[in-house]
Design goal:
It contains 5 helices and no strands. By secondary structure, the chain is mainly alpha-helical. The relative contact order is 0.10.
């Protein structure tokens, strides 16, 4: 009977620790300068669309590097960020593969929704 009580107590402690740990990860504060996840999803969506537009429009460009820079600048200006903020945030999220995977699922969903909206018009 004594073993059963201590096992139950240990199980309760373990459950509480797991709950506290899972809650703390969701509320993790972003380091200064890191773009919030929701905004990063929108930025990555626009980056992918800009890259697609660049590829489609600049296949025969004589200076593709300058053209690519202008596409990225457009996205960064639209979201009021700079290259350094984007790069730091990109490194931050890619260092957390599970979170990055969820972000990219949402990016793909956003691209799909925009494509469907464009087709309907």
């Amino acid at each position: 009977m004594q073993i059963r009580k201590s096992t139950k107590a240990l199980l309760h402690i373990l459950i509480i620790c797991l709950l506290l740990h899972s809650c703390s990860n969701k509320n993790e504060e972003l380091p200064e300068g890191i773009i919030a996840e929701d905004e990063m999803i929108q930025i990555l969506t626009d980056v992918h669309l800009a890259e697609t537009a660049f590829i489609m429009n600049n296949l025969k460009s004589k200076n593709p590097e300058n053209a690519a820079i202008s596409y990225y600048k457009f996205v960064f200006d639209k979201h009021k960020i700079n290259r350094e903020q984007f790069d730091a945030s990109f490194r931050y999220y890619t260092a957390r593969p599970a979170q990055y995977s969820l972000i990219y699922e949402q990016v793909l969903n956003e691209i799909t929704q925009r494509q469907a909206h464009t087709i309907r018009q």
